[in-house]
Design goal:
It is built from ten helices and 13 strands. The chain is α+β, with helices and mostly antiparallel strands.
Length: 414
């Protein structure tokens, strides 16, 4: 199985000051945040589950199993710790009648056939079954950043998590259906059983389950939302620190898919033009535009130093000057009074998860595997947010105009 490892942006997942800097004088703003150890996402997922479970054991919560992955990759130490912890009733049994904790389901492969499940007792329970794309990234066997996915089966109305799997590849509907069978045969809480009803939110999964539902005597329902599944995923990502990612561009009021498509197109052309070959960040350029807050802005092209690549548009020359005045500061105060827009190019795993999802849906253009554009706005106090529609249009216009200007006036000496 490929090792799930992932880069994490600076500032706990948020795009911090390091993403505003290119090289040369501006490099001191933070440098390139990618230069850190990759995260082992599988270990983090298991650790988060383990932590949540043990906290509930300590609190004496009879629910005990908050969420836990029955993955064969489960960290050995975590599995041993779980198995060494007695239930609140101190029964010490593999299956606890008090809290329903099924220790035999942890860290083992489970085989489940339709006939085997059909023979199980039928409960009155309602279950939710779904697959979700997590905000975490891992590297596949070819070293390509890939979003992690989770298959979740959970009982409704605040019931326990029955099964959670993080497969090495994007799960198919058949994988999800098989996970339901495994949830019946080896649930993480309670005795083996069938539910009365399974709710799903994908028509393709419903079609996959219809083929076996008659034999299992399980009713199916297609719904628009699965709140219990979302609770599990939210708790997982909060425990992993993935819930603080910036919102997507389309989550900003007034920003449309068409506007973002134009901005991505301009960014792709800007990256292909590579104007940083001819200009460093020590040569700012004034841009006069009605789109700029003050009627003009100051552009700085990043990338001549070979670290970060992109473009920064400072609101005024004073904003740029304030940044230069703090050139020797290493306390993170260089952006305290800066006002700027920027686009930074990086690998796909640096895109905010919402942007990655929307890029796939809307087929936004990208120039290459290290050319995914991340658009941000910085306000005084080192506050980062996503650009408004007019700000995105200003970045688009600047990326369209600057390469030709630099080619004409700098490279050719015009």
């Amino acid at each position: 199985m490929p090792e799930r490892r992932v880069n994490r942006p600076a500032s706990g997942g948020k795009l911090g000051a390091g993403k505003l800097a290119g090289a040369g004088k501006l490099a001191g703003v933070g440098g390139r945040a990618r230069e850190g150890p990759l995260r082992d996402v599988t270990a983090e997922i298991n650790e988060a589950m383990l932590s949540a479970l043990m906290q509930k054991v300590v609190e004496g919560d009879p629910g005990v199993l908050a969420f836990f992955s029955a993955n064969p990759d489960l960290v050995a130490s975590g599995l041993e710790l779980l198995r060494s912890q007695p239930c609140v009733c101190r029964s010490g049994k593999a299956f606890c009648e008090c809290c329903g904790r099924n220790m035999t389901s942890l860290g083992e492969e489970v085989s489940a056939e339709v006939g085997q499940v059909a023979a199980l007792p039928r409960s009155a329970e309602v279950w939710e079954l779904a697959t979700r794309e997590l905000e975490a990234w891992f590297q596949d066997e070819n070293g390509v950043p890939t979003r992690a996915h989770m298959i979740v089966c959970v009982q409704e109305q605040g019931g326990p998590l029955l099964r959670a799997e993080v497969p090495s590849d994007t799960p198919t509907m058949a994988d999800c259906a098989h996970s339901l069978l495994k949830s019946c045969v080896r649930p993480m809480v309670g005795h083996p059983r069938r539910p009365a009803l399974v709710r799903v939110d994908e028509a393709a999964l419903l079609a996959e389950l219809i083929a076996v539902s008659d034999r299992l005597a399980i009713e199916l329902e297609l719904v628009s939302s699965l709140p219990n599944v979302e609770d599990v995923v939210d708790e997982m990502e909060e425990a992993m620190g993935e819930d603080d990612a910036p919102p997507g561009l389309l989550r900003t009021p007034g920003v449309t898919a068409a506007a973002v498509h134009r901005a991505f197109g301009a960014a792709a052309d800007f990256h292909r033009g590579a104007p940083w070959r001819w200009i460093g960040d020590d040569l700012p350029i004034e841009i006069r535009s009605a789109l700029a807050p003050e009627g003009s802005c100051v552009a700085v092209v990043m990338g001549n130093g070979g670290i970060n690549y992109g473009l920064v548009l400072f609101d005024t020359l004073e904003d740029l000057g304030a940044l230069y005045a703090r050139a020797d500061s290493d306390d993170g105060s260089r952006l305290e009074s800066a006002r700027a827009l920027n686009v930074n190019f990086d690998a796909v795993d640096y895109l905010p998860p919402d942007d990655h999802h929307d890029l796939v849906v809307h087929k936004w253009p990208v120039a290459g595997k290290e050319a995914y554009p991340v658009f941000m706005r910085v306000e005084p106090g080192s506050v980062f947010r996503r650009p408004l529609c007019g700000e995105l249009e200003l970045l688009e216009a600047a990326m369209r105009a600057l390469p030709a200007f630099i080619e004409r006036h700098l490279r050719r000496g015009g």
